[in-house]
Amino acid sequence: MASSSCPTKFTSHQGITTLLPDIIETHILTRLDGQTLAAAACTSSHLHSLCAQEKLWQHICSSTWPSSNDPLVRDLVSSYPGGGHRSFFSHSFPVLDCQKQPSKRIHDDDSLLVTEQIISAVDLYYRNDPVFSRVTENETVTGWFQFPPFRIDLVDAKDSVPTKIPFVSAANILFEELEKNLTLSWIIIDSSRNQAVNLSSRWPVSVQQDWLTSDLHVKYAVVIAAAGGNQRWGLFPARECVECEVMVTLGGRGKKGEEMLCVKEVNMQMKDMEGRNLSGKDGLVILQGAMESGERKNGRREEVKERYEEFLMRKIDRKEKKEWAERVLNNVCLATGLVVLVAFWAFKVF
Asked: Each residue of 272-319: pLDDT tens digit?
């Protein structure tokens, strides 16, 4: 009796490229996240061509950031040169690292004339599930934006947005829960330059509760180094580093024992090392520098917290040195005044 033929086996020397492209596209690549897909594209020219398809990256962007499904964002990103959604993902994937001084000066006011509007695409997640998404536009050419403090507001305090985040009466437990599981993405898109940057630390750097209203203030922060060599701000330049601060205000809502947190306010500001707000014009210049020079990487929660604490220590150290220099200057001025007074008195007497 003739033996039946054995089915063809997939041996170890055969690569994934021996599979049909349709199988790779529909059953393998669609299951990968952005980082893994980018890594797979580097393995061979065949996979690179398959991984570069726009529909794959559009799916990844929409699943990573629900706000990117907004028609305004989707149409703008589709026109990106050099890859559309793939380029947008590489620009926006957190976390931004701008601790190093940029190689060129970014305080060039002529560059402001190019940017006419910025678009904010914001997503808030609880345990990796989106609970809040919003897209807003801000024009950047009129005095309404350039001269007042740089500030972008997404939610009016009167129009709070309900979420499925449970309220816990024990403050320490609630704070720990939010620090671990409430993540934020705030992507700012420069529509004129086709550039984007994620200006959120992803995880909170602090959670505090207002003793009067019981509202929770969840803070996210990214530290951006300003251009080196620019000393127009004196011996202790206040804009050596700029803090991009995002504040999310949460409040309780619902029956007692069944309360859920709601989003009451979401805003972004930029502050120098003395805590003073930057103007819209200066904030826009710092923002453009971050888009051009900032390094994007997949940071860890502990690393984000440590980096922000280092920034706080730098602020304290700078403040102490500045106060010491001011005391020395005051003593020198006082001593000089006394010498002049004694010299004048001696001249009159003798």
From this structure: 888 889 999 888 888 888 888 777 777 778 888 888 888 888 888 888
- The separation between CA 47 and the C-alpha centre of its own chain, rounded to angstroms, equals 31
In degrees and rounded to multiples of 5, residue 94 shows phi and psi of -75, 165
Note whether 135 and 154 are within 8 A (CB): no
Residue 265: burial class (beta carbons within 10 Å; 0-12, 13-18, 19+): middle
Please answer whether residues 161 and 262 qualify as being in contact, where contact means their C-beta atoms are separated by less than 8 angstroms. yes
Q: Residue ranges of the chain with pLDDT lower than 50?
A: 1-13, 103-113, 228-233
CB contact burial 292-331 (16+ within 10 A = b; e otherwise): ebbebeebeeeebbebbeebeeebeebeeebeeeeeeeee
Cα–Cα distance, 249 to 132 (Å, whole number): 13
The answer to whether 148 and 136 have CB atoms below 8 angstroms apart is no
Nearest to 209 by CA among 259, 154, 171, 262: 171
Q: Nearest-CA neighbor of 149 among 290, 245, 282?
A: 282
b/e sequence 211-220, b meaning 16+ C-beta within 10 Å: eeeebbbbeb
80 is written with which tokens? 């990106």
Cβ neighbors of 283 (< 8 A, separation 6 or more) are: 150, 270
DSSP reduced 3-state for 155 = coil
Round to whole Å and give the CA distance between 350 and 347. 5
Q: Which amino acid is at 156?
A: D
Query: pTM for this one?
Result: 0.84
Alpha-carbon distance of 7 to 2, in angstroms, equals 15
323 Cβ neighbours under 8 A, 6+ residues apart: none
